[in-house]
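Researcher: Next sequence.
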Amino acid sequence: MTAALLVTALAFLLSVLLTPVVRRLAILAGITDAPGPRRIHLRVIPRSGGLAVGTAVAVACGVVAGMPAHMGALAVAGAALLLVVGFADDVLSLPPKLKLLGQIVAAGLAVASGVRLELLAPAGAAGLTAIADAALTVAWIVFITNAVNLTDGLDGLASGIGVIACAFLSAAALRGGDVAHALVPLAFTGALLGFLVYNFNPASIFLGDTGSLLIGYAMAVLPLMGDSGHALPTLAAFLLVAVPVTDTLLAIARRFLSRCIAAWAEGRFVFGLLDGLRNTLSPDRRHVHHRLLDLGLTQRRAVLMLYLAGGATGALGYLVSASQGWPVDLFAVGFAIAVIAVVESLGFDELQPVRSGLFLPLLRRLATHRGLLKVADAVVVMSMYAAALWVNGRLGTFGLETVLALLLMVGLQLLAFAALGVYRTAWGMAGVSGVGLLLRACAAGTVTGYMVLRLLGLPVGGGAAIVYFSLVLSAVTVIRLSYVLLLHAAQRALPAEPTLICGTAAGARHALAHLRQAGVGNLKPIGLIALRPRLQGRQVDQLPVLGTLELLPAIVREHGAVHVVIADSGLRGDRAAWVRAVCRHLGVRVHRYMEKFVSYDDGLPGHAGSADLSAASDILEELFDGAGIDGVDGAVVIAQRAVATPNGRHAESAESQRRNDEWN
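Model: Next structure:
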């Protein structure tokens, strides 16, 4: 115990004495960190403070106990290599690939000295599993090293997290009476505490990559180094570094999703994957500590909050290290819940794609992607029929006959879907009529498949057919409902945007009823622009009439409108072109209401069966008029206000006529 106290005190004293020297030398040599877009500090501050930390640790360990027996020379060489690489990066700003190569080499040296995660193979094992475990250990060391490096974004954050992790690691060793294994973590604890005297906010020196890479390497390697295996269980080793690991995983997920979802919405799936992977290496200012500052916390409070989180996970790791019987699955669930809470509280939009609206363009793309829906249906049909055969004990040994039966059932079911028109509307089938169509199509596919398979003598049965019908109907219905629910959730999550209704009183009533009942997108009606001056100053269904069409530019500017909905079929030609031109100039999106919102790409399924050719002609004329080369941005809303009569003429209801006479 005397050696433990001595190494901690000596490392602390050396760090306190050496840090001002390193700071002065860094200023003279120009090794400084200037303010910038991704920087928090507002003045030039010297870096490479890790030299003082590394020197203090090495001297303290050497004076008190020499090199501990469990510390392999190659692992120490890896630490020295990262100290050199970090210093070179502080001085020369090395390319990221060269810095990564240095980290991989250092991790390889640690593995060569016997460091292993032992997740895939025990220590001393040979074969492919041992090679895979060694590769996984290299990945672990490189990942933790970079995670700590990325955490070094606020004064004292990385050094404080290092103090907490090393303190709990040494405490776990001392609890078992293993002073030798506690010496190096205690030396790091003392050295980092001494450095924090100068590094805590307001910092007069930074760790730089010299220190952050060294600390990350130590936090990755030390828990895995023991006389005969780990000093700590793998779960405990993870908990010691849970804070930087969580921050790094969130950063990777954010950067990947922000790019790939946008590319997928444009139909570029492979490009989206590659672009997302490339973007994971792009630095940004949206780490957890940055978000805490954006939420109004000072640097000190943000750092102290992360210290508290690191202390909680470190204490949990200390408890786990005392027993091998802790339930890993419960920790995984708890960790996932904690990550979800962090995402919710810090407002990472990229990790909430539905709520933030990031997912909406992709959903709209899926709405026209029938091929993807067919693939999903094929997978569902095959899975459900295999499950039905298994439930009825007819799956057998899964031989050639079973494979042929599955393939035939897939082909016949998809043929039934296509023949009955299931794929005419792609994903958008959630109403009663859509469910009825799916019911008929699934029944047709089930009966046809049963008959064909029975005639061919392939695996089938009445019980299997009934089970299959129930499963496949439920599955394909859920698939289509999930799309509709996701689309609705994405639209509802968008902030409400002020919308002006432009048209007659009757047209405005129709548009308002649809907007209020169906909740189309994020359009929020705020007023009516009337086509008749006599409506000015009045209200239509509690919506104020703000003025006439000639005042459109002034009304848009005054009320901050983002959308304009044309709700009158008579507004066309030059007047409609003028409205579009004004809105385009003001950055306002234009929509046309005709009872149902339909994307230009989706066509007009609701009017496919129009019995009145003149009505259909009017609809097409409106659409082509709205889709000119100076066209409308956004969706088109289609109104069928006319009802076909037996003699081909259109008659409006008495109520509609009365309202038109009253307001127009």
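Model: The chain has four domains: 2-236, 250-346, 365-490, 495-663. The domain at 495-663 is CATH 3.40.50.720 (Rossmann fold).
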